[in-house]
Automatic annotation (TrEMBL):
VWFA domain: residues covered: 140-358
Protein's recorded name: von Willebrand factor type A domain protein
Keyword Signal set for record: yes
SMART domains assigned: VWA
Classification of source organism: Bacteria, Bacillati, Bacillota, Clostridia, Eubacteriales
The entry's keywords: Signal
Domain of life assignment: Bacteria
Pfam families given in the database record: Cna_B (PF05738), DUF7601 (PF24547), DUF7604 (PF24558), VWA_2 (PF13519)
Signal peptide: 1-31
InterPro entries registered for this protein in UniProt: Collagen-bd_Cna-like_B-typ_dom, DUF7601, DUF7604, VWF_A, vWFA_dom_sf
Keyword Signal attached: yes
Source organism: Pseudoramibacter alactolyticus ATCC 23263
C-alpha cells in the first residue's frame, strides 16, 4: 500500500509536469529553427471621440518556445489507478464544503484547514456535534476551538480536490495550451491520450479538438469509483508504454512521449521464465513492486524494453520521478537512451524547476533586448510633440501607467518619434506601450476643403500631398504615418538549457563553451544554459487613414421679407476664408429657389478639446453677395468654425461657442416709412383743393444727411394708388397729401433716422390732441410723439414705420339767444327763427326743426332768455332770420359777439336777419325784441295815470272780496 501511495503522489507530479510541458510547443511547432524573428509589435490608431486620435506603439516581450520541428504529435499517458481517488492538499471554495480555513485564505494543508461540524440535540436536550464528511451540508456549521469549545463558523467553506480532479484540470489546461498553436498554424499540434491502471487503454485517435479531448479526460474514473474489483487499479508501465509506442506520428512531425511516476510498476503483460509470478489469468505480476520480490525486476524489465523502443524509434522520451523512490525512473531514462531527460523532484519548487528544464531542452526560449521603436508622422498630421510638448507621451506596462527611466523615454526629431528601450530585456508576456495624441492639422482641413469646393483638383496636388491625402470617390482621408522610417529594431536572445554539455562543444578562454552558435555556461545546479544572439528588424503596419468628415456644412440663404417679398430665382455668393490675408480663398456659391436656397460646401474648421484646449486655430469665414439691389440689405456674420470635442460637431467661436450647423446669409427687405393724413371726424366735408404738407428729413445710419432721392407712392384711404400722385423725395423735401391718403417711401436703409413734420396746416384744421402732437406707429404699436422730436426715429428692416397725422376740422359753437325788453314786452311770447346754411348738415341740430329735405334750412322758436347752441365747421356760411317783423309793436335788433361776450348797445343792428355770415370763431347771436306803451301828450312821462289805474283796480278787487264773504256768511 505504501508503494501504491507513492505511485499516487507520482501521478499528481505527472499532471503538473504535463501542464508545464504545454510550454514545450506553443510556437515551436509552428516554425523551424528560430532566426531573428521580431517580437510582437503593433501600431494602433484609435479615435478619442473629441476629434483627436490616440496613436500607440507597443511591443510584447516573449520568452517564446519553438521546437526544432515544424509539427509535433504529443502522447499524454494518463494514470487512473485507484490512488488517484486520494485527496490532495488542493482546496477550492465551495458553498457547502466540508472544510473551513484558519485564515481568510484557502487552506494549504491539514494544518491550515478547519474540520467542520453540524449540531443537533440528543434525547436529553443537550447539543451534540458530528463531523461533516461530505460537501453537501448546508446551514449553520461549527468548528472545534481551543479548550474543546465549539464555535459557529462564518468564513468561506472549501472542498478538497482528489488527485484525479487535479489531474483532469491540469491535463485540460495543457491540452488548450498545446492546441493554441493551431490558431496560427492549423494542424501543427495533435494529441493522443493513453490511460492506464492494471491495463492500458488503446491510444485515442490523434485529435486537434479541445472539446473532444476534454470530453475524454472528464470521463476518466478510477476502477474503484467504477466499482471494478479484483486486481484492477494497479500500475502497468509495460502496457502503457506499448500503447504509446504504437501511435504513429506524421512523417514531418516530431513525436513526444512523456512518462512520469513516483514508484515502480506492479504489473506487466509479458511472460518471463515460465511466468513464475503469475497470479492472474489475464496479467502477470503480484500487484506490488517486484524490486524486492523473489523474481526482481520482471515488471520493470518488461517496461524498459518498450521505453528503449520508443527512443530508438526517434521519439523524444521524458521521465520525471516525483515524491518518492524514483531510482527506477532514472534507470528507465538511462537504459532507454534518454539519460539527459530524467528529472527528480522531491518538492513543488524542484518540480517547477524540472518542468522548466524540460521545456528548455525541447524548445528554444526566445527573449529580446535593445528594442527600438520608430515612427514618423506625415507633415499634415499634428501632435503635441510637433507643437513642442513632448510631455504628452504616455507609457504603460500591460495597460498600467509606467514611468521608464529617462534614458528609455521617447525622443523627438522633427516629425519622428524614437523609443529606445536600451539593453533592458523585455519581460515575458509584458506589453510595453508608448502613446500620444495626434490629429489632422489645419493644413489638412484646408486642403480637403479646397478639394471639395473645387478650388483645387486632386491631380493638381504635389506628390507629397498625394502621398498623405487619400481619395476614395468624392471622399478624402488623411494618412497619419509615413510609409518609411518606422518600425522596430531588436536583438533576439535564444536560450536553451540541457542537463549535459552538447557533444562536440569547444571550450572558450572564459570557461564557456561554444556549439552550433550557442555559448554554454554551467549553472549552479549542474545544468548548462546556452545563448545565441541575432539582430533583427521589422516594419510597422500603418493604420488606416482617418476620414476628414467634419468639413461639410450648409450655406443657407435666409429671406426676411414678409413685408414685401421680391426675390430673384437665384443669387450668387462668395465664401471667403481669411479674407484680406495672404491665405485668402474664395469659393463661389450659387443658391437657387429650386434648391431651397441652400447648398453643402466644405470648410476647414479649427480644433479644440476640453483636455488640450485649442489645437488648431481655424479660420474666419465671411459670405458676401455680388449685388443686393436697392430693395434688400445683405447681412452675414463672420463665422469661426471649430470642431469641439468631436470629429464632426462644430461650434462658432465668434458666437460664444454656440453650435454651428450652417452658414447663414440673410437678405432683409429694406424698411419703409408710411405717412398718413387723417381728418376727424369721419365724413367731414373737406373743401376741394385742401392739401396737407409734410417735411421729411433723413439721416444716414452712420450719421450725416442722406442725400439720396427715394421714390414714393400715394394711396387713398382704401389702399388704391392715386393717379398722378407720388414722385421722389430727398431729405428736407415736402410730401403733399389729401385727407385720407398715405405716402409710402420704401427701400430705406436699416438704421436710417427720420423725422416727419406737418407744415402749413390750413386754418380750418387743428391737430388731434394739441398743436404739438401726432400719432406715430412703428409696425403696429402706436405712440404719441411730439411732431418736432429732434431725436428722430429709426427705420427697421422688413418693417413699415407708420406715421399718422390726425387733424380735426375746426368747428365752433354758434349760440342763438333771445331777449325781450320794454315796459310792455311779453317775455313769454315765442318768436320764430329760420337758419339757412350753404351746405347741408348730416343731422338735425338739437332744438331745430328741418324745413324741407335739404338739411340746409331749419326753424326754431325762442322766448325771452332762451338759447340754442349749434356747432358748425370752420368757414361755414349761415343766415339767421327772425320771421315776424316787428310784431305787435316790437322792434327787432341783433348783435354778433364772440362767445361769452355780452353785446353792448353799439353791437346791435336794427334788422330781422343777420345776413350771410362766415363762421371762423365761436359766436353769440343775440336777437333783441322790445315793446313799450307810449302815453298821451303832457303825461308822456308822468306816472300818475298808471298809479290811479292801479289803485282803482286794487279797490275794485277788495270790494269784490268782502262781498263774497258776506254772501258766504
Amino acid at each position: 500500500m505504501e508503494r501504491m501511495k507513492r505511485r499516487r503522489w507520482l501521478w499528481l507530479g505527472v499532471l503538473i509536469a504535463l501542464l508545464g510541458l504545454a510550454a514545450l510547443l506553443p510556437s515551436g511547432v509552428l516554425a523551424a529553427e528560430n532566426t531573428a524573428t521580431p517580437p510582437k509589435f503593433e501600431k494602433k490608431l484609435e479615435p478619442n471621440g473629441d476629434g483627436t486620435y490616440k496613436l500607440s506603439l507597443s511591443v510584447t516581450g516573449t520568452a517564446s518556445s519553438t521546437s526544432e520541428s515544424s509539427k509535433a504529435d504529443v502522447v499524454i499517458v494518463f494514470d487512473i489507478s485507484n490512488s488517484m481517488d486520494e485527496e490532495t492538499n488542493t482546496y477550492v471554495e465551495y458553498a457547502t464544503g466540508r472544510y473551513g480555513s484558519v485564515s481568510s485564505d484557502a487552506p494549504t494543508g491539514s494544518s491550515t484547514r478547519r474540520r467542520l461540524y453540524r449540531r443537533s440535540t440528543n434525547n436529553w436536550g443537550y447539543y451534540q456535534y458530528t463531523e461533516i464528511t461530505n460537501d453537501t451540508t448546508s446551514g449553520t456549521v461549527y468548528y472545534l476551538g481551543d479548550n474543546y469549545q465549539y464555535h459557529e463558523y462564518t468564513g468561506k467553506r472549501y472542498s478538497q480536490k482528489t488527485r484525479l480532479d487535479v489531474a483532469k484540470s491540469a491535463t485540460n489546461t495543457m491540452i488548450d495550451q498545446l492546441l493554441a498553436n493551431n490558431a496560427t498554424n492549423p494542424g501543427s499540434v495533435r494529441i493522443s491520450l493513453v490511460s492506464f491502471d492494471t491495463f492500458a487503454s488503446d491510444a485515442t485517435a490523434w485529435s486537434t479538438s479541445s472539446e473532444n479531448l476534454h470530453s475524454i479526460v472528464n470521463g476518466y474514473k478510477t476502477p474503484q469509483s467504477s466499482h471494478l474489483g479484483g486486481h484492477r487499479g494497479g500500475t502497468n508501465w509495460e502496457d502503457a508504454l506499448q500503447k504509446a509506442d504504437g501511435t504513429q506520428p506524421r512523417a514531418d512531425a516530431q513525436k513526444h512521449v512523456i512518462f512520469v511516476s513516483d514508484g515502480n510498476p506492479t504489473f506487466r503483460i509479458s511472460s518471463i521464465n515460465g511466468n513464475p509470478d503469475d497470479q492472474y489469468n489475464d496479467v502477470h505480476g503480484h500487484g506490488d513492486d517486484d524490486y524486492y520480490h523473489s523474481h526482481p525486476n520482471y515488471n520493470y524489465d518488461a517496461a524498459k524494453d518498450d521505453a528503449k523502443k520508443i527512443v530508438d524509434g526517434g521519439a523524444a522520451f521524458y521521465t520525471v520521478g516525483t515524491f518518492g523512490d524514483a531510482a527506477r525512473m532514472q534507470n528507465l531514462a538511462t537504459e532507454a537512451g534518454a539519460s539527459d531527460n530524467y528529472y527528480k523532484a522531491d518538492d513543488e519548487a524542484a518540480l517547477k524547476a524540472a518542468f522548466k528544464n524540460i521545456v528548455a531542452s525541447i524548445t528554444h526560449s526566445m527573449g529580446y533586448k535593445n528594442v527600438t521603436l520608430k515612427d514618423g508622422l506625415t507633415s499634415l498630421t499634428s501632435s503635441a510633440f510637433v507643437h513642442g510638448k513632448p510631455g504628452d507621451f504616455k507609457y504603460t506596462k500591460n495597460g498600467a501607467a509606467w514611468t521608464p527611466p529617462d534614458a528609455q523615454k521617447a525622443r523627438v526629431n522633427g516629425n519622428q518619434v524614437t523609443w529606445d528601450l536600451g539593453d533592458m530585456e523585455l519581460e515575458d508576456g509584458v506589453t510595453y506601450t508608448l502613446s500620444f495624441t495626434v490629429w489632422p492639422s489645419q493644413e489638412a482641413y484646408d486642403l480637403v476643403a479646397d478639394l471639395n469646393n473645387g478650388v483645387k483638383t486632386y491631380d493638381s496636388l504635389s506628390a507629397d500631398e498625394k502621398s498623405q491625402i487619400v481619395k476614395d470617390g468624392d471622399r478624402y482621408s488623411l494618412k497619419t504615418n509615413t510609409d518609411t522610417g518606422n518600425g522596430i529594431t531588436f536583438t533576439q536572445i535564444e536560450t536553451r538549457t540541457t542537463n549535459v554539455l552538447p557533444k562536440g562543444a569547444t571550450p572558450n578562454p572564459d570557461g564557456s563553451y561554444s556549439h552550433d552558435g550557442f555559448t554554454y555556461k554551467k549553472n549552479a545546479d549542474g545544468t548548462w544554459t546556452g545563448t545565441k544572439q541575432a539582430n533583427g528588424s521589422g516594419n510597422f503596419t500603418n493604420p488606416k487613414p482617418v476620414p476628414l468628415t467634419g468639413t461639410k456644412i450648409k450655406v443657407k440663404k435666409i429671406w426676411t421679407d414678409n413685408l414685401d417679398p421680391d426675390r430673384p430665382e437665384s443669387i450668387k455668393l462668395t465664401l471667403y476664408r481669411d479674407k484680406g490675408q495672404a491665405t485668402q480663398t474664395a469659393t463661389p456659391i450659387e443658391l437657387k429657389n429650386s434648391n431651397s436656397w441652400e447648398k453643402e460646401i466644405s470648410i476647414a474648421p479649427g480644433l479644440q478639446t476640453d483636455a488640450d484646449g485649442v489645437l488648431e486655430a481655424g479660420h474666419d469665414y465671411i459670405i458676401e453677395e455680388a449685388s443686393t439691389g436697392s430693395k434688400y440689405e445683405f447681412n452675414s456674420p463672420t463665422y469661426h468654425p471649430m470642431l469641439n470635442n468631436s470629429a464632426t460637431a462644430m461650434i462658432d467661436k465668434n458666437n460664444h461657442n454656440a453650435p454651428l450647423t450652417e452658414l447663414k446669409a440673410t437678405n432683409i427687405r429694406r424698411g419703409r416709412i408710411e405717412i398718413t393724413k387723417k381728418v376727424l371726424p369721419e365724413g367731414t366735408e373737406i373743401p376741394d383743393g385742401t392739401r396737407f404738407k409734410f417735411k421729411l428729413t433723413l439721416t444716414k445710419p452712420g450719421g450725416g444727411t442722406d442725400t439720396n432721392a427715394y421714390a414714393y407712392t400715394v394711396r387713398d384711404k382704401d389702399g388704391h394708388p392715386v393717379s398722378g400722385a407720388g414722385g421722389t423725395v430727398t431729405s428736407g423735401g415736402t410730401i403733399v397729401l389729401e385727407a385720407g391718403q398715405t405716402a409710402s417711401i420704401p427701400n430705406l436703409p436699416s438704421g436710417t433716422k427720420y423725422t416727419v413734420e406737418e407744415t402749413d396746416l390750413p386754418d380750418s384744421y387743428e391737430h388731434a390732441a394739441s398743436d404739438e402732437t401726432y400719432e406715430h406707429w412703428i409696425g403696429t404699436a402706436p405712440n404719441m410723439t411730439k411732431k418736432d422730436d429732434d431725436n428722430g426715429h429709426v427705420v427697421e428692416g422688413n418693417t413699415a414705420s407708420r406715421v399718422t397725422f390726425t387733424n380735426h376740422a375746426k368747428s365752433f359753437a354758434l349760440i342763438l339767444r333771445k331777449l325781450v325788453d320794454g315796459n310792455m314786452g311779453d317775455k313769454n311770447k315765442k318768436f320764430k327763427f329760420t337758419l339757412n346754411l350753404t351746405k347741408a348738415l348730416a343731422e338735425t341740430p338739437s332744438g331745430w326743426t328741418p324745413s324741407g329735405d335739404s338739411m340746409k334750412v331749419f326753424t326754431a322758436e325762442l322766448k325771452n332768455g332762451d338759447a340754442l347752441s349749434l356747432t358748425l365747421p370752420y368757414g361755414a356760411t349761415y343766415t339767421i332770420t327772425e320771421d315776424t317783423a316787428a310784431p305787435d309793436g316790437y322792434t327787432t335788433q341783433y348783435a354778433i359777439t364772440a362767445s361769452g361776450t355780452e353785446p353792448g348797445l353799439a353791437d346791435y343792428k336794427q334788422d330781422l336777419t343777420t345776413g350771410k355770415q362766415t363762421l371762423k370763431r365761436g359766436v353769440w347771436i343775440t336777437f333783441r325784441n322790445k315793446r313799450e306803451v307810449i302815453p298821451a301828450s303832457g303825461l308822456k312821462k308822468h306816472p300818475l295815470p298808471a298809479v290811479l289805474a292801479l289803485v282803482s283796480g286794487a279797490g275794485l278787487g277788495a270790494a269784490l272780496h268782502f262781498r263774497r264773504r258776506r254772501n258766504a256768511a
